[in-house]
Every structure is written in C-alpha cells, then in structure tokens.
C-alpha cells in the first residue's frame, strides 16, 4: 500500500467531491486524509448506560431511559400548545414534551409500549422532563447495529447550512477507514508503549472515532494526547539542547570583588531561599560555556531586581559589561534609580539611555560605552539602535519580555561577537503548564517567596453602594500619612468613554477630598506632563493618584498603601494582579479594593473571588488559563505554537508532565535518538520537523 495515502487531497475521498472539499478546507482546515484522521470529536453521546428515572440528576445531561408512555395530553401556553406525555419506569415518572410536529407525534406514539428515549433532561415543577426526545421502540432498538458512544465533531454554521452534518462527517470517517484499512504505523517506541501500557496506534485512532466502550475510548484518548504532548516536548528539549551545543557563551569563572563586596556589605536585606537558589542556577549557566537563555519568573515585589544586579556583578567581575532593557521609560528610570541607590557605596558606573535622552548625553554614553567606562547601561528600546556599541557586552537582562519581539531580542545578541548571556525577567506569572509548553526551550527559574517583612496585601470586593464607606477608609489611611491609587479601566475601542470615566471619577474624588492634592495620569497626556504628575506622587506632594492602567507596570511608591480599582469586572485577572502589585511595597499593611456594580457575569465573579482568596500569582495565572485558554493569555504571536489537535494543556496537565518527564529521560540517555530502540522516535521526529503535524503513517 502507498505509504503516502494520508497525503491524498480530501477531494478524492468517496462522498466528498469538489464543493464539500472546498468547505472542509475553508471551515475546518481539512486538506488531506491526514487532516481528517486528526479531526477529533469534541464530545461523545454516551449510550452505553440506561438510567432509571430515580437516578436522574439536575445537571442537563443527555441520558437514555427505558419506559412506557401512560398518558398524552395537549397543554395550552401563551403561544399555541405543547404536547406532554407521562413516561414511567418501575422507579418513577417523568414528562416528554413536544413544541412542534405534535399532530404526527400524537398519531405515532403508542401507549404502554416499551420505548428507549434519549435526550437532555430539565427539572421543572418538581418533575424531570425531556423536550423532543429521540425515541425508538425497544423492539426496533435491539435490531440496530450501533456504537454505544456516538462521536460529536466540531462544526460551524456554514457546514450545518450546507448539509455537512455530524452524520455526514461520521460517514466520511468510516469511508476513510475503509480506504486506509485502518492500518497505522506506531509512532512511539516499544519501550514507551510497554512502560506506559499504551494501546497500539491503530487501535487508538479507531477507538477515538468509533469507540467500542468507555474504557477503550479513555485509553485511546490518553494514548493520542500523550503522543501529541510528547513530541512537542521532544521538539522544545532538542531545540534547547542544540542551542547549548551550537551557541557558545562567555565563561564567567570569576566571582570577584563586585559580587562579594555587594553580597557581604551592601545587601539591604537577607536574600530569600528562592533568590539564593535562582542565583545559584544563573551562576551555573554563566560558567557552563554555553550561552545562557534563562526566564526568571517572580511575582511583583519578589526581588527579581537584586537577582539581576548580582548576575550583572558576575559579568563585571569577569571583565564584561551588562545592560538592562525595560519596555517603558517609566520602568527604565525606576530600574536606574533603584540600582543607583543599591550601588551608591560601590565603584560601579551605571548610565541611563532612553528615547528622551538629550543628544549631548547620548554622545557621552556612546563614547564611554565603547571605551569600557560604563559598567551597566539601563534603557528602553533605545539600547537596540545600531549606534549603541559596547566594548564587551557579556550579559543582557530583559524586563517584562512579553513586550519585546523576537527580532528585538536578536538585535541584543549581535551586540558582541559571541552572543551575550540572556536573562529574561517577567512579573507576569506564567502557569507552569504553559511555561513548559511555550518556553520549554528556555531554562526557567522561579522566585516563589516574598522578602521577609512584607505583609500580604488584603484584598476585598465592594459594590458601588458601599462607596461612602470606601471614601471614609481612604480618609483614615491618608490621615496615617499613606497615599492612594484610584485606577479606571482603559478599553481601547472607546478612548473617549474611558477619558470621560476618568474625568468623572477625578471630579467626584476632587469634590469628596477638597483639602487633598490629587495627581492625574492617563495615556493621552504628553510624556513630560505624565512624568511631572508621577514625580509629584512619588515625592509625596500629592496624596491621591487618579489614573488609567498606564501605571500598571513599574511604579514603585512604598508609601502608597491603598489601590482602588474601579469597574474591576472590566479587567482581566493578570491585569488586576499586576495593579494590586503597585501597593504592598513598604512595611505597612496594604489594601486593594475591587469596586463593581451589582450585575456580574460568572467569569467576573470567579475573577473577583480568586483575587480576594489569594495573592499567589501562579495560582491566579492557573485560574486565568482556565477562564481564557492559552491563546488569549499568550497573545496571538504565541498561541500558534500550541496548535493542539486533541490534548488540552489545562485539563491534561498531568499527561503533559508525564510526556516531558519521558522526553527528558530519553534524551538524557540518547541525545541524538540514534539507539535502535528509539529508531521510530527519530523517524517520527524527522517527519514532524518536516510537516509540522504528522502523527499518522499508514503501514
């Protein structure tokens, strides 16, 4: 048989034809036999079990019941009538209801004849009812040949209108299995299938489309999900391995004066266990001879900056320069001020370069950078300009990396003959499952402890009707000498509306607090006006800052202890968490108050409950992932990476971990997959690299 039969265009499958083929391509991305095999059902109707009426649950599930009709009646309603039949078994009674086709149904229903009914149940007036059930007499039911688990495939409105129903897709799938004889090469090694007790590939593919039982369906899904996630992990791990082999890095063997002096005499506080662990991981990378590519995740306020500074000291101790790139000017200035303060008693030369640096200052920086007089350069995208030339750049730290594209990072690589080591930092906690799948080719470090002395922020949810109490609370906090943020949502489609919300809010705050100084910051202000207002708040000249989300990243005011988020239901979880992180930076107790109206969707309620229940960014990120899915969280540029056919990284978290564990174990023993037992893995991986998503091969 032709091994390439799966690459046959879908037009040639019996029952398809040019029009249907066109629709399948446009609507579902099905171009070949291969794509159709990988078009998996998204749910199944379970007809393996018959329920008794007294076993039914109030869960709108689709169920199958055997019983008899004892009575039929027409019931008047606002518009027309409905037909209602009493349906009983030996355990109880329920109702069957029809809103249309009543004449025909009434003529064909037989009283006291055993029927098998199937459909969704509703609970109404103390009774279960089933609208428009599928019905068959028990006698007819016994004659039918059927699979007990009926697959339901994803569909679109266009397909349904064009007559490509679930039944049609099912028939096409049957035809495909006839033409391919259902023979598929196994794409996993014998060792893996034996160890994990996986069913053969052919059996898995058959049972996922035509399940013979609940148990076989579960085994088929497990096998296919494992395989899909295993090859994604294998790809990422091999990429990481090749990167380390191919891209040599500077070897930083020395831990010298800068690092030791700072560690012994100038550390403002004792490092947490997590910070020590991460510094150890970075030190090992910097001394390995391979270029470091490490992602450092740590919640707002967890002390990533100290880790970055100490990593830069290692570069300095080995005769190299370091740079730190931030996505906004505000954040770059803040990093600069923070590092200057930490290094004030050290002989470290730190400079700042941003878009608004004056020409004279730029010239001086360019010159000093090239002759090695600058140790650490902090800046925005301005660092990427061709004019910016380092004498010897050894380490580049990138803050909030999701705001920089791959091309921008690559520019940093070219700032030295050998690419500098790269440390990428983010305060956006990425769920572990997602990090494993998207950044599996980066080494990941996590700071999961807050520095000692930090009190967890108290978060509460208040409705608009409690506003007067919230104002009283603000007054009390300001009396104690604290400062307050009040943030309004920014929804880009309607900047006019946002601006109006903000100005209305500002006016009502000004009326409520006539004796207080108030700063205002929003996206439509010129950057020098924005900086001026920020500066007043930082210096404590104003007590209240009214702002849009422009303050989300990077403002550090230890004296600000209250964050009020207006219309909190309009924010995503990660944004709420980022905003909350603007307070809680001093030793005082801080508060975050989420203000909303009374009308809230279920998702909004979940977000608000999560925020009030936990301060753990990773826990919040996991909930966010469940609510929004991976594509939304990572943004469009990343979601394509996870073009999964059957696995779901949220629900199949355990399978993902198992797949990664086995991929790592195999590569540790056999990095080039050259052993005889891994031959099939090498072949499949090669095909995958060529075709991106080949999972099946005809034997």
Automatic annotation (TrEMBL):
GO molecular function, one term: DNA binding
Domain Helicase ATP-binding: 285-447
Helicase C-terminal domain residues: 466-631
One Pfam family cited in the UniProt record for this chain: RecG_wedge
Domain of life: Bacteria
Top EC class of this enzyme: isomerase
Key words, A-Z: ATP-binding, DNA damage, DNA recombination, DNA repair, DNA-binding, Helicase, Hydrolase, Isomerase, Nucleotide-binding
E.C. numbers: 5.6.2.4
Coiled-coil stretches: none
InterPro entries: ATP-dep_DNA_helicase_RecG, DEAD/DEAH_box_helicase_dom, Helicase_ATP-bd, Helicase_C-like, NA-bd_OB-fold, P-loop_NTPase, RecG/Mfd, RecG_dom3_C
Protein family (similarity comment): Belongs to the helicase family. RecG subfamily.
Reported function: Plays a critical role in recombination and DNA repair. Helps process Holliday junction intermediates to mature products by catalyzing branch migration. Has replication fork regression activity, unwinds stalled or blocked replication forks to make a HJ that can be resolved. Has a DNA unwinding activity characteristic of a DNA helicase with 3'-5' polarity.
Protein name: ATP-dependent DNA helicase RecG
